[in-house]
Amino acid sequence: MALASRQDLQDYSLRRLGHPVIEINVEDGQVSDRIDDALQFFQEYHFDGVERVFVSHQIVGSKLKLTTNIAGNFTKGEIITGGTSGATAKVDSTDGQYITTEESKGTFVASETITGGTSGSTATLSPTDFYTKGDIENGYVPVGSGILGVTRMFNFGGAATNNTRDGQLFDLMYQFRMNDLYNLMGADMVYYTIVQSHLTTLEKLLTSERQIRFNRKTDRLYVDTDWDKTFNVGDYIVAEAYAIIDPATYTEVYDDMFLKKYTTALIKRQWGENPKKFAGIQMPGGVTLNGDQIYQEAVQEIQAIEQEMSLKYELPPSFMIG
Questions:
Q1: Considering the chain, what is the average pLDDT of its residues?
Q2: Mean pLDDT of 56-78
Q3: How many angstroms separate the CA atoms of 137 and 50, rounded?
């Protein structure tokens, strides 16, 4: 019967080691830890442990928190100024006692009075938690903890565009389609193909892929660009990534042939490690503990299984040329 849960995997591994015919001297917590270790190794190296996904994130702006729900008195697009700090920011949206801003300059201070440059409205910032940085100010976007790696970020701009939030009108592809493809049925496909090839070359020369940095321990995707000039609040960032397969959602993971063997070997090593310090002690009835032999057998099995992983189940490394 196919395994479909963590408990099924635990029971299967113990049965392979001889339970209930013989007693497996491993505590339940230790068994759970070894299953975690096996799953982590599976997700790190097995090609079935991850999947390619497309991660999207809507950019959020920085937020100012007021003492009262009068944020609606300020108008979208106006510049607000801090009376004490002199800091300025552009209003993007309002909601209750929160003002979402962009293009911030300077640092606002708690409990100061802010004034709208267009509406003339005034309000007082909260004494605590009055300012929360947004994605544009941070220079990164958060990604889920299940993301193993990010390979690239999609560039929503055409060939030779400056790829800024105001530059799409000057996209060469936009101009080409507007002027030369107004009658799609009458367009020469040979001409279109040649122009497309030339525009692709221009794009590679003039607008290289945007540089990104990602470390899965921080769960942050950094984009090396001038955020204020590139993105608007509400824009989307879309990236190609590899995400861990969650066995709680996709229970077929527990029935993977490699995972079953590896989990069993890890539990066997734990079983041998527990009584190792009692090696040679004779028990009542003449039985002698020999945990070291079980431990050594398990270590050899683990080495063989991990080598098998590299040869059979691990994706080949990507090569960089140039």
A1: 87
A2: 95
A3: 32
Q: How far apart, in whole angstroms, are the C-alpha atoms of residue 197 and residue 154?
A: 19
Q: What are phi and psi of 113, to 5 degrees?
A: -95, 130
Instruction: Starting at the earlier edge strand, list the strands of the sheet with 131-132.
Output: 122-124, 113-116, 79-82, 88-95, 98-105, 62-65, 131-132
Token look-up 């702006």 returns 61
Phi then psi dihedrals of residue 224, to 5 deg: -85, 90
Strand segments (E) across the chain? 50-58, 62-65, 79-82, 88-95, 98-105, 113-116, 122-124, 131-132, 140-142, 147-153, 212-215, 220-223, 236-244
Give the count of alpha carbons within 13 A of 180, CB side only: 14
The C-alpha angle with vertex 249 and arms to 248 and 254, in degrees rounded to 5, equals: 55
Q: Report residue 45 CA to chain centroid gap.
A: 17
Which pLDDT score, from 0 to 100, does residue 175 have? 64
Burial class (CB in 10 A: 0-12, 13-18, 19+), 315: exposed
Which of the 8 DSSP states describes residue 281? P
Q: Quick one: pLDDT at residue 168?
A: 52
Contact between 294 and 17 (Cβ < 8 Å): no
Percent of the chain that is helix, strand, coil (3-state, to 5): 40, 25, 40
Helix (H) and strand (E) counts in the chain: 8, 13
Closest CA to 199 of 173, 162, 168: 173
Q: Cβ distance 213 to 141 under 8 Å?
A: no
**Gap between the Cα atoms of 270 and 77, Å rounded:** 63
Per-residue pLDDT tens digits for 96-150: 999 999 989 999 999 999 999 999 999 999 999 999 999 999 999 999 889 999 9
Which of 291, 234, 239, 278 has the alpha carbon at shortest distance from 102?
234
> pTM for the full model?
0.77
* 106 phi and psi angles, rounded to 5 deg: 85, -175
Q: Are strands 98-105 and 62-65 parallel, antiparallel or unpaired?
A: antiparallel
